[in-house]
From TrEMBL:
Positions of the Glycosyl hydrolase family 67 C-terminal domain: 452-685
UniProt-annotated catalytic positions: 281 (proton donor), 360 (proton acceptor), 388 (proton acceptor)
Entry annotated with the keyword Magnesium: no
Protein name per Swiss-Prot or TrEMBL: Alpha-glucuronidase
Organism in which the protein naturally occurs: Actinospica durhamensis
Length: 689
């Protein structure tokens, strides 16, 4: 039996009313297998709630069933839909969802929910086949088993505690996990890593003596087609195996990983694999033994290979103890410097997981050059739904436009492959299309009643799943989908029939351009950081300027920006293939939004927009704070509608007040800082403190 909705938790994008169209009809589910049972359970519950009829049959159906409005069926003979694809058809006045395998049927079921009433049950049904573009669509949790003294229960978590762990143990009540699995499947996510990539002692034991906790979680994810992955500590042979070394070429170390992995699969046969952060921010790794990261990753890949598992090996490797006076070290270069020479050296079941930008999930960064540098390696691209640098789920910041821009970026120019193609594996030399590493998101959920702290931040996780399924999908259309599923209204029973449309329009207006708004009032022109050190919330222009973290802007009285050109700077620009190496290198070609990432310029430097850098900073910061006000006004105009639950309204109200306050603080600190540095007054004579 799968998990029903929980009464004390917000249903997110599976609002009960979104099930009405299906649940009020006659629905036939045909086929055998655990995931087919999940679909049958879902149908049964929806029909019980809304007065429809659920019919069950084990044999596949050809489609034209006189007594059903909807037939969800496995195919009798393979139609080439793959493991997760499905096909929608109209046969004899009924809608039909066909899938070759059970996971496809599950995704087809959720597609019917997304379509709602008329489109799903009339000739308006969008018939045809759908398959996910990316095979691996993964959510990584930075959840600690034991509360960390600095990072808490969830590192960079802004939605309460972990839904898995509490005070050093697996939670007793895991009903949230089942509900989460259902939400993930409904947006297409099929893999989840259940513990932090910074693997402390309590988490390390999940691999061995606490493996049963992982088994329990896997059991809750399995009915929704989701495989569980585990972050492991590279030094586990020392700490757990009592070996004198963790050298990846040492036979005893290799044997320890092989045996340990065998035991994992004995307990969890569909275990997904390992996730590793090595030689990064204090985590152990192969460098300690003079080995390369390919040697480290391959050792784990070899242990996993007999069972079909994969290792996700993160490329987030840089020197976090750099001297700020040392201008020759550039953190942006680090991942490419370390990993590009290793192209072709990784096993087939080793996936190199690359953050989308070269720094660290900033509001604006160029695409990481690693993505274009390793055509013989399986690459996964990592994005961050937890809003570490983008307002920490106190600010509305819909990130799908950013991710869509990353996925659509073509590192080799217009005629070449896109980032989405690389993640899909299309551009890998000599390998079949479709076996790429996929897309990974750092999850933004916690044990908060609304899952994500800010209720509107739910849209980011939903949009991630939808973009991983189809990277070409329009962020604005995904947003409308999410709004429609989360706030479906009561149909004909709505006391205010115009209400749902008004609410939907307001939410769209609040969220659609909120990434741009956030960028407007925070660090300008791609320079990044300028946040308060450690917790990364709120403005602090020089907070990271004299630290060891490699995150500098170099503002002085003449100008600002990091010279990353080959001619006079760190040479980072040359890590890109043409045309981008040339575009980023040339001051007159570099896109405005990335100008300060690549160049150090004077405050009077003219942007392509015609504005000077300093005037642009003033203008965008005044505009950004005003836009934050406008977001709140849109909300106030609809928040008293009956279809907005009181507790949700209260939460959003409180968050929007904080966003407005914080946007003004950003505006004033950034504008004051640059006015004081440059001495250039605002052309429009607005108040700068
Ligand atoms: C999990 C950034 C964050 C860290 C995070 C790290 C990573 O540095 O601030 O909290 O650690 O990225 O991605 O590994």
């Amino acid at each position: 039996m799968t998990t029903p909705e929980l009464s004390n938790v917000h249903p997110a994008w599976l609002a009960p009313a979104a099930l009405r169209a299906l649940g009020s009809r006659r629905v036939l589910v045909c086929g055998e297998g655990p995931l087919v049972e999940t679909v049958a359970d879902e149908v049964e519950r929806a029909c019980a709630r809304f007065g429809g009829t659920a019919i069950r049959r084990l044999a596949p159906s050809a489609g034209g069933e006189a007594d059903a409005d909807l037939v969800l069926t496995l195919t009798a003979t393979d139609r080439g839909l793959g493991d997760e694809g499905f096909e929608l058809a109209r046969v004899g006045g009924a809608s039909v969802v066909r899938a070759d395998r059970p996971a496809g049927l599950l995704y087809g079921f959720f597609e019917i929910l997304r379509l709602g009433g008329a489109p799903a049950f009339t000739d308006a049904l969008p018939v045809g086949a759908q398959r996910p573009a990316l095979g691996r669509r993964m959510a990584d949790h930075w959840d600690n088993v034991a509360v960390h003294p600095v990072m808490g229960q969830v590192e960079r978590g802004y939605a309460g505690g972990s839904i898995f762990w509490r005070d050093g143990r697996l939670r007793e009540d895991l009903s949230r996990v089942g509900a989460y699995a259902r939400l993930l499947a409904a947006c297409g996510i099929n893999a989840v890593a259940v513990n932090n990539v910074n693997v402390h002692q309590a988490e390390a034991h999940l691999l061995t003596d606490r493996l049963d906790d992982v088994r329990k979680l896997a059991e809750l994810f399995r009915p929704y087609g989701i495989r569980v992955h585990l972050s492991v500590n590279f030094a586990a042979p020392l700490s757990l195996g009592a070996l004198p070394t963790a050298d990846p070429l040492d036979p005893a170390v290799r044997a320890w990983w092989a045996e340990t992995t065998e035991q994992v699969y004995a307990l969890i046969p569909d275990f997904g694999g390992y996730l590793v952060k090595a030689d990064s921010e204090g985590q152990p790794g192969p460098f300690a033994y003079g080995r390369t990261h390919a040697e480290g990753a391959n050792m784990l890949a070899d242990a996993l290979a007999p069972f079909g598992g994969v290792v996700h090996w993160r490329a987030f490797v840089y020197n976090h103890r750099q001297d700020w006076r040392d201008r020759s070290t550039d953190r942006a270069r680090a991942a490419h410097d370390h990993f590009a020479p290793l192209d072709g050296a990784f096993r087939d079941n080793a996936i190199l997981q690359v953050k989308h930008g070269p720094m660290d999930f900033q509001t604006r960064e160029p695409v990481s050059p690693v993505i274009a540098a390793m055509p013989r390696t399986r690459l996964a691209v990592e994005v961050q739904a937890t809003q570490e640098y983008t307002g920490q789920q106190r600010h509305v910041c819909y990130l799908a436009p950013q991710w869509s821009e990353v996925l659509g970026f073509r590192p080799w120019g217009e005629a070449g492959a896109s980032v989405a193609d690389v993640a899909r594996g299309q551009s890998r030399d000599g390998y079949p299309d479709g076996d790429g590493g996929g897309l990974v998101v750092v999850s933004n959920v916690g044990d908060d009643r609304f899952w994500t702290g800010h209720p509107l931040a739910q849209a980011n996780l939903y949009a991630f799943g939808r973009l991983a399924w189809n990277p070409a999908a329009e962020p604005a259309a995904i947003l409308d989908e999410w709004i429609g599923l989360t706030f479906p209204g009561d149909g004909e029973d709505d006391p205010d029939p115009a209400g749902p449309a008004r609410l939907r329009a307001a939410l769209h207006a609040m969220m659609d351009e909120s990434w741009q708004t956030y960028e407007n009032y925070t660090a300008p022109l791609g320079v990044g950081f300028m946040v308060r050190p450690n917790h990364h919330y709120g403005p602090d222009v020089d907070g990271y300027e004299y630290t060891p973290w490699g995150t500098y802007h170099f503002a002085d009285r003449e100008g600002i920006g990091v010279d990353r050109t080959s001619a006079t700077g760190t040479g980072f620009a040359s890590q890109y293939p043409k045309p981008w190496s040339e575009v980023y290198e040339a001051l007159d070609q570099c896109p405005d939004e990335l100008l300060l990432f690549f160049h150090h310029v004077s405050y009077g430097h003219r942007l392509h927009s015609g504005e000077s850098v300093v005037q642009h900073i003033y203008d965008t910061h005044f505009a950004g704070a005003e836009q934050a006000h406008a977001i709140r006004e849109h909300w106030h105009a609809v928040a008293d509608l009956d279809l907005v639950p009181a507790d949700l309204r209260e939460r959003v109200d409180e968050r929007l007040d904080e966003q407005v306050r914080c946007a003004e603080e950003w505006r004033d600190q950034i504008n004051a800082y640059f006015y004081r540095k440059s001495g250039v007054p605002d052309a429009h004579r607005r108040i700068i403190h």
